[in-house]
Amino acid sequence: MLDKRIEKSPVPLTKDDFASDQMVKWCPGCGGHAILAAVSNVFPRIGYKKENFTIVSGIGCSSRFPYYVHTFGFHGIHGRAAAIASGVKIANPDQSVWIATGDGDSMAIGGNHFIHIIRRNIDVNILLFNNQIYGLTKGQYSPTTPMGQVTKTSPQGTIEHPFITAGLVMGAQGTFFARVPDNNVKLMTEVLYEAAKHDGTSVVEILENCIIFNDKAFSSVTSREKREENQLILRQGEPMIYGKDNDMGIILKGTSLYAVKIGIGGITEKDILVHDQFNPDPGIHRMLGRMMGPDYPVAMGVIRSAKASTYDDLVEDQIEIAKRNSSIKCVDDLLNSGDTWEI
Amino acid sequence: MTKQKNIVELEDVVVKFVGDSGDGMQLTGTLFSDTAALAGNDLATFPDFPAEIRAPQNTVAGVSGFQVHLGQRKIFTSGDMCDVLVVMNPASLKANLKWVKPGATIIADESAFDEKGIEKAGYKTNPLEDGSLDSYHLIKAPISLLTKESLTDLEIDKKLAEKTKNMFVLGMMYFLFQRNLDNSLDFILKKFSNKPEVVKANQVALKAGYNYADTVEAIASTIKVGPAPMEKGRYRNITGNVATAWGLLAAAEKSGRPLFLGSYPITPATEILMELARHKSLGAKVFQAEDEIAGICSAIGASFTGSLGVTTTSGPGLSLKSEALGLAVITELPLVIVNVQRAGPSTGMPTKSEQSDLLQALFGRNGEAPMIIIAASSPASCFHYAYMASKFSMEHMTPVLLLTDGHMGFGSELFKIPKVADLPEINPPIAKANDHDYKPYRRDPVTLARKWALPGTEGLRHRIGGLEKTNIDGNVSTDPLNHELMVNIREDKVMRVANYIPEQEIMGEETGDLLVVGWGGTEGMLKSAVGHMQRAGKKISLAQFNYIMPLPLNTAEVLSGFKKIVVCELNKGQFVKYLRMMHPEFKYLQYNKVQGLPFHVKELTDVFTKIMEEK
């Protein structure tokens, strides 16, 4: 549901309403351009008044984002976008709050804020630009860089186990997680709209190509030749089928998921799992989020979208109850409450 | 029948209740203070408890105390040396005897001075019996035993009976000070309203203690402290931390900007967070963040969107917030940071007070990041300075750091209740909808404050952040001259606040032999010491600073009227360094103490006398 509290625009909006007068300074070919295009598509479609969007960011290439969209914007400090945005949303629930952040910003220096905003389920939308590298500082490994990769700070290959973003988000009790490749603006636009509708923290992980420092990091999944074979695009209520000939699928056997070919070993379409993003139980969502090659396709689209109360709603409820029940209605009441005496 | 007792009338008395952490000394001290306040005494209190929640029973490490200084004159401090010490066990005697005046009254629970207790406290012999307390007026009473006996008719369990011994001793104190029991009886009734047996036990113990003291011969004379001459008005007792919280609430209400507190628990600042969390009915939003950094960052986010953003902390937390302080400086947003100072460095001594964060407050940020610094000087003054910090922050669009300290935060004094209508107006420069002239860094020509453009307002969409921006337009810029211009403007904006703060006051004559300079929480002790010497005819005055950055405009004038200047601080000399930098034309002596303890009047008068005698 779109937020009823946030005022709608009286007139239809277009992407021009959100066009910034600033020069976009990302490298040509950077995945950021596609994300900007998708956001420019989806903001007018959401339909809130154009003054009711606030974009908050941290530090990194991703975090230049607020300058490129004509909304209220706040470019913060490294890792702290989630904390700043928490203050924005709690203080002003009438804003649709978006966070632009990266893998380093949110999962290294800002890891703490990232898990806690998710745990609290504050109603913000997180655009997580995951390029598996530090771009702005020119090519050091990040918490999502695959183990063994050679970077400027890992000349012999990294010796760290990377985070799987989906696992971290669901481990933090995330209620909304989606993943999209940067070269499918249509899917990204759909997913961002779903994220906007979700009550609570929505994390959209965008597999973003860094053409300078980590080019083709996702090409085995996102390239034109490989994507049909190696991407499972999830749709609510539909069987998890993928592949060039739509003959591959995901089944649950025992406690694990398996990628299977329909028609082989007696598998029929009926055996294929049907996606239920709304399932409160995160079990299957977690398994979907962890899938990767070579044995599995990578799950794209909305993996999880579960209902839970949001922090910002509960704050408003508590204030309303306190206002109704407390005898302290103003600061003069407070100053004169309890033991006082006249001299 | 009540025997006729002598009455000793005193100007002021320092009373300290000490016992094991679980003995209920904080409650006893609070009730004693409230009753004194109702009787018209002026007073100041200070709780003194260990960092551990429950240290091993009956050891010196586990001693918890509550000190109250009451008088029939104006009281500035919670006092230094005690006139009356109430001790509930040997360990508390051991830990506190050094703070007792010669000839003072000591009331001791004899029943707790058994072999085990004496040994645990580290005594070889029983101090109540071995003559070591001969120079004091010792009142021994088997308090625990008598309490249990007084409750035998109630058929309550032993543990509960044992727990009410603090009420028994409070009753004894009420007799000693000839106080009315009604306020405490009423408090007990309200506090335990759902446990009638607890109400009964505590009330019986309180009365029994009073009657016991009345009957025994041990108390030869009672003490009378009459009402203090106080300005007419409505009063209450208030701690510095609560006063800080209320000052912030008052500023939010007056300015029409909702209060948002982003904070993380840290001793001794936590009470402000807890207090504000209780006042949602006033619309205050309180966010207990995951860490200190999230505390300040959420407050900055809230400020961006139109709230009075506040974060509260103590020294180590201020260190963690440093980067975000710079963000508030460069984004030119209102933000109040309250630092309840404690003894450092690092974790230091969390429950002990110090003034050692001043240089960090002034200079502890990367880049040129000037900030308004204000220091409160007593528990009740925290209300005023929290209010003024909020006012300056919102009206001048820049962060303000308010320094209090643990002593002030935990301590209490009487507070004349103001009316919100009488408080100074607060007018934040809020940008109007569809203001075609609006630019993020267009400024008021007088204050240099930029406008506060609230998200949701039509025609005001804009972006700010931690990257340097062009003046007026607010576009990202690395232009060298623009950066220098912005650095200068941000500094000038802070310095211009000097035009809005009061002139520095002097307690005493404007010229003389010695000017004592202090800042913040040492006010009470310095006033007492200087006042004492002024009454003795010395040409000594006091300038206690509350506005640190910027300094009051008449600072040089104040400093120029004296033969000597001594700057007294509970640190290694931080304010004096700052004064030497800002006003190098004067020669400064300094007196410093870094023990996690307040100054004592006697040590100060000794120091001042020596300085005045030296050629």
What tags apply to this protein structure?
heterodimer, A: 343 residues, alpha/beta, Rossmann fold, eight-stranded mixed β-sheet, three-stranded antiparallel β-sheet, 11 helices, globular, B: 615 residues, Pyruvate-ferredoxin Oxidoreductase, domain 3, seven-stranded mixed β-sheet, 22 strands, 36% helix
Quick rundown:
The complex is a heterodimer of chains A (343) and B (615). In chain A, 29% of the residues lie in helices and 18% in strands. Chain A is built from eleven helices and twelve strands.
Q: What this model shows, in words?
A:
The complex is a heterodimer of chains A (343) and B (615). In chain A, helix 1 (32-46) crosses helix 6 (185-197) and helix 5 (165-171) packs antiparallel against helix 9. Chain A contains eleven helices and twelve strands. Chain A has one domain (15-238, 291-321): Thiamin diphosphate (ThDP)-binding fold, Pyr/PP domains (Rossmann fold, 3-Layer(aba) Sandwich). Chain A has helices at residues 32-46, 81-91, 103-109, 111-120, 165-171, 185-197, 219-222, 227-230, 283-290, 311-325, 331-335; strands spanning 53-57, 72-75, 96-102, 124-130, 176-181, 202-207, 231-233, 241-242, 248-253, 256-261, 298-305, 341-342. By secondary structure, chain A is of the alpha/beta class. The N and C termini of chain A lie far apart (58 Å). In chain A, helix 6 (185-197) links the parallel strand 5 and strand 6. Chain B is α/β, with parallel strands linked by helices and 615 residues long. Chain B folds into three domains: 6-224, Pyruvate-ferredoxin Oxidoreductase, domain 3, CATH 3.40.920; 236-422, Rossmann fold; 512-613, 3-Layer(aba) Sandwich (Rossmann fold). An eight-stranded mixed beta sheet of chain B has the order 7-6-5-2-4-3-16-9, sandwiched between helices. In chain B, strands 11-10-12-13-15-14-20 form a seven-stranded mixed beta sheet, sandwiched between helices. In chain B, helix 12 (315-331) links the parallel strand 12 (308-313) and strand 13 (335-341). The mean pLDDT of chain B is 95. Chains A and B meet through strand 1, strand 2, helix 2, helix 4 and helix 10 of A and helix 1, strand 9, helix 9, helix 11 and helix 12 of B. Strand 12 (341-342) of chain A pairs antiparallel with strand 9 (234-239) of chain B.
